Amino acid sequence: MISTQRVSVFIVAIFLCFILLFQILQNDGPSINDIKNISYRPFRPSIHDSILALFDSIRHPITENYTDVSGTRFLLEQPPIWTKPLKKKVLIVDIDTREPSGDNQILNSAKMDWEKLDVSGGELVSNGIMNHYLYAQIHGYDYKFFQAQHIKGHHDTWILPHVLYDLLPDYQFVVTMDADVTITHLEVPLEWLFNRWGLTKHTSISMPWDQEEILGGETVSIDSKGLQVLNTGVVAVQNLEYTFEMLEAWKDCTTEKRYSGCGRWKEEWSHEQRAFSEYIRYDFNPAGDNIVEIPCDDAMGWPGMMHEYEGQIMSDCNGTFFRHHTLRKDKTKESASSAVMQVLSEILQHELLEHKDKVWVKEAERIEVDEAPSHVENVDLSG
Questions:
Q1: Which residues pair with 209 in a beta bridge?
Q2: What's the N-to-C CA distance of the chain in angstroms?
Q3: What residue intervals traverse the membrane (predicted)?
Q4: If you count DSSP H runs as helices and E runs as strands, how many of each does the chain have, helices first?
Q5: DSSP calls for 118-141
Q6: Is 161 within 8 Å of 262 (Cβ atoms)?
Q7: Checking DSSP bridges between strand 234-238 and strand 205-208, what pairing results, if any?
C-alpha cells in the first residue's frame, strides 16, 4: 500500500510538470510535435576535455620533484612559489610571419601526411604548433598562433617584443617558443618549471642562457661587456607594470631614442636577442629576479649537439625540457614524435597495469607426458 507521503510527492511532481509545459507553450516554446521530433544526440566530449582526461594519470604534480625515464632526478631546490595550476591564466603562443596553410601544413583543411612532413618553412611551423598546442591542451593553458606582419627595415625576429607587449594584458603569463623548439616532457607543467627556474611574483621575463659558440676562432655568443647572451628561443613574460616598461624599451630599442647604437641590430644577427642582452637586461633587473635566466641545459640544444659540432659549440646543453634545434631544424620532427610516444607509452602502460588481470592471460604450464614404451612380445629362446 502506497503511503500518503509518497502519494503527495507524486502529485506535486505531476503538478510541476504541467506548470513547466504550460510555461513552454505560453512562451512560444516548442510544440508537442517539436518535442516528439527531437532526435537523440549522444554526448561527445570536446577534444580539449578528452586530452585533459587522457593525460590526467601522468600529469606531473607542480610541487613534487621530477624523475625522468632514465632515472635522473630533478629537484625543486627552493620552496615552491607556484602551487596551483594557472590554466587559462597562461597563454602559449607561436609567433611567426609565415602562414602554415600550404600543402601538408597544419592550417590547410586537407589531411596532413605526418610521414611526408618536411621541417622547413610552413611545415616547420606546423610541427612546432602541434607540439606546443598539445602541451597547452594537456595542462589547460590557452593557445594562439599569432601571424605577425613584417616590420619594415627589421629582421622578422623583431616581431617578438611587439607581440608580447600586445598579448600580455589578457594573461598572467605569456610563453612563446621558436618553431624549432620541442617540449620534450609533455607531462611536466610550466608551473613546475617556474618553480625550478626560480620565477617569483616579481619576475617580468625569463629566457635561457645561450650556448657558447665559436666561429672563425672567436666567441659569438657574448655581449660587448663579455657576458654570455640570453636566447629568445623560449621566453616567458609575466603581467606586471614593470614588464610593460621593459617590453616597451625593448621593442623601441632600434629607434635609438633611449639606446644609442641599438639600430645596428635591426638586421644584424642576433637581432632582438642581442639588443636585449646588450641593453635591456642591464637596465631592468634592479631586484635580481626581475629577469630570470633559465639554465642552458634546460632549454637549449639537444643531446649530443656539442659533440656533433665539436669546436663550434662549446656548451654541453642537451635541451632537457625544451630542445632548441638551432643548427639542425630537421631534428624537430624526431623530437616531437619521441615526446608524444613517450607520454602515450606511459599512459598505455598505466592502463594495462591497472587492468592486467583482464588483459594479461597466462596459459597454464603444460605437463609433458612421457611416451609409452613400445609393446614387445615375449620370445621363447629355449630351443
A1: 230
A2: 103
A3: 7-25
A4: 13, 12
A5: -SSHHHHHHHHHHHHHHHHHHHT-
A6: no
A7: antiparallel
* Torsion from C-alpha of 224, 229, 232, 233, nearest 10 degrees: 140
Alpha-carbon dihedral sign for residues 60, 201, 254, 163: positive
Report how far apart, in Å, the C-alpha atoms of 222 and of each of 54, 225, 274, 278, 316 are: 44, 8, 9, 9, 17
Tens of pLDDT, residue by residue over 196-214, are 999 999 999 999 999 999 9
> How far, in Å, CA of 93 to CA of 144, rounded?
5
Distance CA 49, CA 45 (A): 6
How long is the chain? Answer: 383
Cell of residue 254, nine digits: 632600434
Element (H, E) at 251: helix 241-251
Question: What does the domain layout of the chain look like in residue ranges?
Answer: 47-349
Distance of CA 196 to the CA centre of its chain: 16
| Residues 329 and 120 sit within 8 Å (Cβ to Cβ) | yes
Please report where in the chains the cell 616567458 appears, as a residue: 236
Q: According to the CATH classification, is domain 47-349 in 3.90.550.10?
A: yes
**Span 352-369, pLDDT tens digits:** 999 999 999 998 988 877
